[in-house]
Amino acid sequence: MNLENIQLDLDFVRSQFPAFDDPLAKNWSFFENAGGSYVPINVIQKLSQFMTSTKVQPYADYEMSKIAGKEMDESTKIFSQMINAKNNEILIGGSTSINLYVLSNALKSFIKPGDEIIVTNQDHEANISPWRRLSEHGAIIKEWQFNKQTHELEIEDLKKLLSNKTKILAVTHCSNIIGSVNNLREISDLAHNYDAYVIGDGVSYAPHGLPDVKELDVDFYSFSLYKTYGPHLALLYGKEEILRKLPNQNHEFLKGMYPYTINPGGPNHEELVSLIGIYDYFNNLYLHHFGETKISTREKIKKINSLISKHEENIANPLLDYLSKRNDLKLFGKSRIKNKNRAPTISIISKNKSSKYFSNFLVQNKIATRNDNFYAWRCLKSLGVDVEDGVVRLSMVHYNTEKEVTEIINIIDRFS
Known about the structure:
- By secondary structure, the chain is an alpha/beta fold.
- It has two domains: 3-39 and 298-412, Aspartate Aminotransferase, domain 1, CATH 3.90.1150.10; 48-277, Type I PLP-dependent aspartate aminotransferase-like (Major domain) (Aspartate Aminotransferase, domain 2), CATH 3.40.640.10.
- Helices cover 38% and strands 14% of the residues.
- The strands form three sheets. The protein has a seven-stranded mixed beta sheet with strand order 2-8-7-6-5-3-4. A four-stranded antiparallel beta sheet has the order 9-10-13-12.
- Helix 5 (129-132) links the parallel strand 3 and strand 4.
- Helix 12 (297-325) runs parallel beside helix 15 (402-412).
- The longest helix is centred in the last third of the chain and has 29 residues, at 297-325.
- The model has no long low-confidence stretch (mean pLDDT 97).
């Protein structure tokens, strides 16, 4: 089967999301996906089923409890397969911010005064502040700053920062403001030459194609499941050989039982089980487009990722082309997507009006978006943007349509 000839079936995709038929939501074009995506019916059904039949303490010997525990384990197992991790290398927590804060608390025991930690000024604060706080334990914080002309993180600049004292490098896989996709494998290879740990923030990358964490060779990787078509939870991956060495952050009796040691209190049970619905949705996409074949879960994800990438490129480029030609608007980041070098997360400001005014104009025309700093205030400061007014961010995922893009271009054309 020639993948080049297969296109994402948008009618099928959108039929899986109840929001598009909801009396309130269906009247809007949803361009705020980077803040949180809609969920498919599979997730809703799994959540409802768990709450109805098995909302009990799991892992006891009575039937409802056995099923609850089995499904919780199945959820972790299937998600590990989706990102090519081992079953004992992922944990599900409340948010990326919480996951990375707990991880930093564990890693601080490895930090000695004078050790160096590299962070960027392109990241969301979730992957900056936990590591900057380690300066309280004697760490020296070094900032990898993006090029102010291109807004890109330059590899040559990273090479100048790395040293034998580097212990941690925290970097975004994809900026939630600039939209650029950073070469995390190349970054990991460079950092590992100095035996540094690499913490990748995949929050803005994962909604556009679940990553292969082994291919990236990062030591830790986190992303938000509520931005990848699920409930308000987040996933943290860590290499097994590192997790087993980290000091316990959980109850004392769980010492040595990684990854639970990095997950105080454990996950929300019903929402954890509902993650099976994300796999069911992707599997339905696979079956609809490719039919039944015996391949691994990860191979299915790779094929769906390819369809998603092509579609997102097709819908985002006309909007990027239009915005880049408007003299009264400023677009941040690359003006075209090619070979997944950026996400369809598009940040702009008006040169004549506030971002709040611009955002309100779009909302009045039934475009669901907002203005904000989106927790990337250091990035906005470096861009010379008012962090209180922020940017207007238009973020799309694979269920957005060409028609919606045409409509928003027509609407923005009336803005002045």
